[in-house]
């Protein structure tokens, strides 16, 4: 009985180590890639691309956007879609 438990425990431990290494590698890769992507996006925002688009929104519309906390909701939805995309691409998880 103890030998069977040790076999199952060893199998789980190997799988957990593999997943830990895989997810750590993915997190490090995204952190590395974001250091290149964020300056490009900030250049677009600073040049007035998004500023001019948001400045044309009426104040009455901004009231309801702030009331519904739409900015946080959109951020959560985009994060969930990205997480779903990543998880479905992993062959042994998704």
Strands, helices and their partners?
Elements: H1 2-46, H2 49-55, H3 59-67, H4 70-89
Secondary structure: number of strands: 0
Structural class: mainly alpha
Helix-strand topology string: HHHH
Shape descriptor reads elongated
Oligomer: single chain
Report the uncertain regions.
none
Helix content: over 70%
Radius of gyration: 22 Å
Beta content comes to under 5%
Task: Tell me the major beta sheet.
Answer: none
End-to-end separation in angstroms reads 33 Å
The total count of helices amounts to 4
Could you explain the architecture of this structure?
The chain is mainly α and 94 residues long. It has helices at 2-46, 49-55, 59-67, 70-89. The protein starts with a helix and ends in a 5-residue tail after the last helix. The relative contact order is 0.05.
Short account of what is shown:
By secondary structure, the protein is an all-alpha fold.
Descriptive keywords:
mainly alpha; 94 residues
